[in-house]
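Researcher: I'd like a candidate sequence for this fold, 308 residues long. If you have to choose between options at a position, lean toward the conservative one.
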C-alpha cells in the first residue's frame, strides 16, 4: 500500500481542491505527507524581463527567486497546519513543475494527488497541462481531482463508494489490489463496472443491413460480462470486502463510467491506464483520459505493470 502522499500545490484555490482528499487519505491511511511547491526559474525570467527593463539585473532576478521560494515555503507551512497526519513535510524545488513532480515521486509506494486545473501566481504554472504530463510520464499511482468553481479546500472529503471499471483483461485488473486495501481502510463499497457496446458497424453491409442475430450478440456480450463480474465479486468477497456489487451498462465505456459517478455523491473512480481493445473491450488509456476530463469524481489511476 502507499507509504507516502505527495501533493503538488501552486498557491491557487483551484489547486487546493485536492486538499480535502489529501487530508482524508493521510489520516485514514496514517501516512506522511509531502507538500510540494515548484518555482519555475524560466517562467520567472520571462516575467521579470517583461515587467521592466530597469529590473533586468542578475541581482534583482536573484531577489525575485529568493522571494518566490520564501513565499512558497510560507504558503505550504500554512497548508501543513490543516493536516492530521503523522508527518507533513514542506518542500520547494526549482524547475519545470512536471519534471520536479515526477522526480519527487521516488517509488511506487508514493501516491501523488493533484488537481487537473489551477493557475499559480508568479510562477504561472498551469496544473491542467502539468497533471496530464505527470499522468503520461509517471509509472506510479496518481489521484486526480478535476477542480470546479464549487470545489472547496476545507476540511476532509467524504468517500462512500469506489467505482472500478473493468474490461475483462488482466491488465485492467491490476487496479484491484489497491482498491481492496483502500476499501478496507476507508470502509468503502465497491462497484464493479463493465460497459459493453455492440459493434454494429462491423456487421453492417453496403445496404446497412444488420444480421438477424443482432439481439443475440448483445445478450451474449452481456452474459459474458455478467459471468466475469460475478466471478470478480466472489473473489473480492473472499478477500474480506463486505459491500461489493456490479453493473453492466450498454454504451461507451468512458460515458458510462462518468454517468454512474454522477448518480450518487462521494465516489472515487479507480482504474488502470492500459487495456486491450477489441469487440468486447475498450482501450483503457483513452478511456482514462476522458474520464479524468469529464468526471466530477476523483480518479485514482494505477499504471499497469505491462505496457499495452
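Model: Candidate sequence:
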Amino acid at each position: 500500500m502507499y507509504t507516502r502522499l505527495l501533493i503538488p500545490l501552486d498557491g491557487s484555490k483551484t489547486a487546493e481542491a485536492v486538499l480535502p482528499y489529501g487530508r482524508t487519505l493521510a489520516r485514514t491511511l496514517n501516512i506522511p505527507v509531502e507538500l510540494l511547491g515548484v518555482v519555475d526559474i524560466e517562467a520567472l525570467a520571462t516575467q521579470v524581463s517583461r515587467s521592466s527593463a530597469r529590473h533586468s539585473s542578475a541581482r534583482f532576478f536573484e531577489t525575485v527567486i529568493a522571494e518566490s521560494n520564501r513565499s512558497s515555503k510560507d504558503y505550504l507551512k500554512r497548508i501543513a497546519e490543516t493536516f492530521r497526519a503523522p508527518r507533513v513535510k514542506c518542500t520547494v524545488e526549482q524547475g519545470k513543475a512536471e519534471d520536479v513532480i515526477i522526480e519527487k515521486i521516488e517509488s511506487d509506494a508514493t501516491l501523488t494527488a493533484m488537481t487537473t486545473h489551477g493557475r499559480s501566481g508568479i510562477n504561472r504554472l498551469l496544473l491542467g497541462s502539468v497533471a496530464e504530463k505527470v499522468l503520461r510520464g509517471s509509472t506510479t499511482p496518481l489521484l486526480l481531482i478535476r477542480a470546479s468553481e464549487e470545489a472547496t479546500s476545507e476540511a476532509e472529503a467524504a468517500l462512500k463508494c469506489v467505482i472500478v471499471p473493468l474490461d475483462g483483461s488482466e491488465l485492467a485488473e491490476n487496479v484491484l489490489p489497491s482498491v481492496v486495501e483502500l476499501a478496507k481502510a476507508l470502509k468503502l463499497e465497491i462497484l464493479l463496472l463493465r460497459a459493453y457496446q455492440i459493434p454494429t458497424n462491423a456487421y453492417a453491409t453496403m445496404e446497412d443491413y444488420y444480421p438477424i442475430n443482432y439481439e443475440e450478440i448483445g445478450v451474449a456480450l452481456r452474459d459474458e460480462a455478467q459471468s466475469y463480474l460475478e466471478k470478480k465479486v466472489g473473489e473480492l468477497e473472499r478477500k474480506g470486502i463486505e459491500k461489493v456489487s456490479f453493473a453492466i451498462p450498454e454504451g461507451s465505456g468512458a460515458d458510462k463510467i462518468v454517468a454512474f459517478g454522477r448518480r450518487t455523491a462521494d465516489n472515487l473512480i479507480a482504474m488502470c491506464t492500459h487495456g486491450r481493445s477489441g469487440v468486447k473491450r475498450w482501450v483503457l488509456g483513452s478511456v482514462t483520459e476522458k474520464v479524468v476530463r469529464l468526471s466530477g469524481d476523483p480518479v485514482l489511476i494505477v499504471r499497469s505493470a505491462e505496457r499495452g
